[in-house]
Amino acid sequence: MKKNVISTLTLAVLLLLMSCNTGEEPVGESQIDTNPPILNNLDIWLRNNFVQPYNIEVLYKWDINDTDVDRFLHPPYEASVQPVAEALQKAWIEPYTQVGGEDFIKKIAPRQFTFAGSFNYNPNSPTITLGVAEAGTKITLFNIDYLDFTNINSIKQPLKTVHHEYGHILNQNVPISTDYGLVNPENYTAQWFNRTDEQARELGYITAYGSSQESEDFVEMVSEMLTNSKEEFDAMVESIQNEEAKAFIREKEAMVAEYYKTHFDIDIYELQAITAVATQELVN
Amino acid sequence: MKKIYKHSWLICLTLFLTVSCNKDDGDELFSESPADRIAEQNGELLNLLLSENQGYKAVYFSKNDEFGGFTYYMNFNADGTVRMTSDFDDETEIQSSSYEVRTGTTTELVFTTRNHIQKVSDPDHPGLIGTGFKGTSVFQFFGYENGALIFRDVRNKDTALLTLVPTNFSDFESESIASAEASLHQRQNILPTISSSVFQILKIENGNEVSNFNLNYDPLRLHATPSVIVEENGVNAVKEFNFGVAFTEDGLVISPALEFGGEAYQVFTYNEATNSFIANVNGTTATILFDSAPAIIKEDVNAIGTPGHQVFGSYLSFGYNPLTSPGFLAMIDTVNENLQQLGDWSYSGFEYYATPDADGEVAIFIGITDMNTGDTYYGGYWFAQAIENNKLYLSLRAYNGNGEYFFDALIPMLLFFNSQEGLYFTDEGSFSSDLFSYSNLSSTFTSADQPNLRVYGLWFN
Fold first, then answer.
1. How many CB atoms lie within 10 A of CB B348?
2. pLDDT reported for residue B374
3. Domains of chain A: which residue ranges?
4. B110–A16: do the CB atoms touch at under 8 Å?
5. Where are the alpha helices (DSSP H) in A227-242?
6. Are residues B225 and B317 in the same domain?
7. Which residue segment(s) compose the domain that B263 sits in?
8. pLDDT tens, B119-156?
9. What is the band of B110 on the pLDDT scale with cuts at 50, 70, 90?
10. Residue A181: per-residue pLDDT
């Protein structure tokens, strides 16, 4: 009896629903504007080199909502965009693809880059923000109009930011071991900007910013390893006077290498060798 | 009761289905889809921008309660590019960049890649680090007003204004640059020269009534805070106004308009013969001119010698602030030429110890640097000090050995301090220059004898 009631009700509902359709209004054309935007040569190049192969969008045309609306920023010159995009291609995407496999960047990558031309000054602080990573999906690079492609240190600046932020994205996929933060936690500070990089190294942190907290420490190690050749990195570490600090950094270096090997089957020293050559080749 | 409750869902369903069958064939408010209407709205602005094949002249005040404005010449193309020049600085060559008309908070004109317009949002601008002129790249279209396309900035909604009017040029490429350079040149006319007084007055003549304002123009920000003494309820009070200044080919415009005595003054024309900017409105006249004395003499001088106004320093190494006048800089050049008679010396700055000693005298030590060794020697000079009529009077009484050695070379400087008509003194807020910003109070001294000489510095304590 109960089953009959349910069946009857189901039938009634179906009939009522169908009866509402008069059949007089067929589905028409989409009311959404699907016209393609005006694409210049740069847009086409970015589509061919970033969107199609990697599903990564590079935004350089200004949208006030892409960056902090309270900061005073401006878009880049169009001429600044492709050199920076090529630097990412050569010294970040291609090395990871070569060592991690064809799909590595396709699977784990920020889906969007935003390029801003201006410096991003932090209010009430003597610092600037070089880049921002948001939820593992988007990286914003600032001051791209001020990069000098005849100077390797200038080229390394956005690459350091990208390797740093990409380190965060890898960490969001596979968290780092809590042991990392136990190596030398005593000198982490929010006032990291009062230290020079050299002073931070004497305390066992690879950069001043790396001495802010363990997660930044880890990705600063990644960033420094992947924007310096092994020789350059070793020279930097060996220049540290404090033997204990040197040992801390070597211990953290080993943990970074193990993290890459264990979780991503990447030999970071092989990656380091490739990025070093690629970075050098970017110098005009 | 339980039975009714059990079947209540059935009643609800029936009601729901019955209501859902209500045929909703009301009249459509719009005949077109939202996407089409948005496209049409954007298209209106885009068509206007493209309709002027010789482009637009744009005046942009990014935040008129803090900064002045700049003039741009923009020529929009259908391929999404815009060619542009401006009077922001002397780099006036036309640059091409991208723009879009899109819907944001309303129909917006967005300059999507960098061009002259972004110079006002450059946070690296010397003296305005972190903010620049607080400008934007995104402008909301507010429609027509007096033949101009009006845009605003959502961030500075009450203080930002971008207006576009057709250029009416016959050759955008050449005439836009010439016009930008002409208005950039006008910017120099408001600045004191080596020989002109530093006292800039805004004089308003309305019938028999003449009101003199101190203009208080800040050339870094292109912004003025004029002050005038007005009588209110039988009491004299200082009233302050503020406006930004944008320069034009033949003068300047201010924003907001200056409203005084029932009239509004906005457009000023430069008069080369009198080196002044003049606005005529309904038979009244507002004139920006140089005068030999300030319109209002402040009482700041009375603090000299008290805590906070005891040791003053002005060194070239502090960096440049335009409050040090071109006349004073030229005097330093003269002093340096004089010093060459003595050897490879160069003026570096001075310190003023403003608290009188037991003899009632104050000391000024003028630093002279040996350019071979880098060592600085100080010529010490002692003055009798008096403060009268809101001016500072210093009379040279004595000097030390170094003072004697450098005396002849430093005569122009000593005459500056020893001004017979006294020195005008003004506190200028915290110290800033093209190199540094300090919280120390800064001040200026201006010679009443030679009002082209003004020096800026800071108080150490």
1. 16
2. 95
3. 41-281
4. no
5. 230-238
6. no
7. 199-291
8. 999 999 988 989 999 999 999 999 988 879 999 998 89
9. very high
10. 94
Q: Tokens in use for B203?
A: 């004089």
Q: Assess whether pLDDT exceeds 80 at residue A10.
A: no
Q: How many CB pairs under 8 A join A and B?
A: 90
**Among B333, B399, B406, residue whose Cα is nearest residue B368:** B406
Average pLDDT value for residue range B362-379 = 97
Looking at every residue in chain A, the average pLDDT score rounds to 90
Q: Is A69–B155 a contact, with Cβ atoms under 8 angstroms apart?
A: yes
Distance from CA of A36 to the nearest CA of B (A): 13
User: Which amino acid would we find at residue A87?
Assistant: A
**Chain B residues touching residue A38 (CB < 8 angstroms):** 79-80
Whether B223 and B351 share a structural domain: no
Domain with residue B116: its CATH number is 2.40.128
B282, B321: one domain: no
Contact (CB<8Å) A78/B123: no
Of B291, B320, B343, the one marking the end of a domain is: B291
State the architecture of A41-281 in CATH terms: 3-Layer(aba) Sandwich (3.40)
Residue B7: inside a domain? no
Minimal Cβ distance to B129: which of A20, A33, A121: A121
Question: Which residues in A227-269 belong to E strands, given as ranges?
Answer: none
The two tokens of residue B374 are 């880098």
**Rg (chain B; Cα; Å):** 30
Is residue B338 domain-shared with residue B383, that is, in the same domain?
yes
Residue B15 has pLDDT above 70, yes or no: no
- Of B291, B323, B345, the one marking the end of a domain is B291
CA distance B214 to A55: 61
Per the structure, the count of domains in chain B is 3
Per-residue confidence (pLDDT) for residue B36, from 0 to 100 = 82
What's the mean pLDDT when you consider all of chain B?
A: 93
Q: Cα–Cα–Cα angle for A86, A87, A92, nearest 5°?
A: 110
pTM: 0.82
| Cα-Cα-Cα-Cα dihedral sign, residues A82, A88, A94, A95 | positive
Domain match, B143 and B57 both: yes
- Between the CA atoms of B32, B35, B41 and B43, what dihedral angle is there, to the nearest 10 degrees? -110
A251: nearest Cα among A207, A206, A281: A206
Answer yes or no: are the C-beta atoms of A91 and A271 closer than 8 Å.
no
